[in-house]
């Protein structure tokens, strides 16, 4: 019942011109992508709008809890009244302040971009925010999503080694993050490609998923890599329920992501490129 694989194949040709996932968490959060479901709209000043505002207000006011995840719902008081469900997820390595800032920015931005949509989602580099008139809590969603291949290629000479290290890092992340009992379904990996090159990777599910749904979502995200991102030194696949990313530089806060003492943070790297959004 949870198979959304077919719609994933119908790639929607909606391109956004800029997407940057930066390693900076000190400045304002960076917009990545959004999706408004244009087939289900509400009317201005309706009960839906009131309930949506309640949900978003509750999510933004409650993001002080440090799990980096929150859900809320409102409505459903009569058989005709839609339930409005909402949730946010912050990247596992960011603190409450950064999380709250991101969710607050995302809320304003999402309402501006999808003003009358019952169903919408927005991703920033360090958070996602979504709402729907269907229950979205504890439900695996693999669409809509986007791929982001990096601009730098791996060299021919290192490609076999890189692919092996990447494949094993992805498997390890999927297992570690889905089985994590830290309250976040989040994991990072640091693997040596060569003596002078490391692969840094990150995987996260919304923590409301079961271990098996989280693992399944990762398999789906990882399964996109050969199509979008073969030969790249960095890439991300971002879905509503989970995301993965890898780079040859540390793009997350290693100190907060792991208990081991880290090397110094690297310079922020910005990456631009077209993004394809998968449709519902
Ligand atoms: C949260 O993280 C940001 C960015 O790393 C940092 O500037 C800020 O001081 C941190 N806030 C707290 C309360 O730790
Ligand atoms: C939905 O409608 C908005 C506003 O008209 C438009 O900008 C956006 O491209 C549409 N999205 C999709 C996925 O069709
Ligand atoms: C909705 O309410 C706002 C503020 O009360 C008002 O400015 C606006 O005209 C209303 N829109 C509709 C469609 O009723
Ligand atoms: C936070 O959420 C709880 C329900 O989980 C709600 O009762 C409370 O009012 C919210 N806090 C604020 C400040 O809105
Ligand atoms: C939110 O999440 C809790 C579990 O943390 C769940 O029991 C509850 O039903 C959800 N609440 C709403 C309002 O969706
Ligand atoms: C969501 O809204 C659409 C359009 O108004 C409606 O067709 C659909 O039945 C609603 N979904 C739920 C679960 O209520
Ligand atoms: C990477 O490889 C692609 C396809 O093989 C090529 O089009 C592109 O120019 C290369 N990029 C760089 C930065 O070398
Ligand atoms: C990384 O996280 C640690 C521990 O949470 C925090 O003290 C530090 O300020 C963070 N560094 C950056 C660059 O965000």
UniProtKB/TrEMBL annotation:
Signal peptide limits: 1-27
Domain of life of the source: Eukaryota
GO MF annotation terms: kinase activity
Keyword Repeat: yes
Gnk2-homologous domain residues: 30-136, 142-251
Keywords: Repeat, Signal
Pfam families in the record: Stress-antifung (PF01657)
TM stretches of this protein: none
Entry protein name: Cysteine-rich receptor-like protein kinase 25
Species of the source: Quercus suber
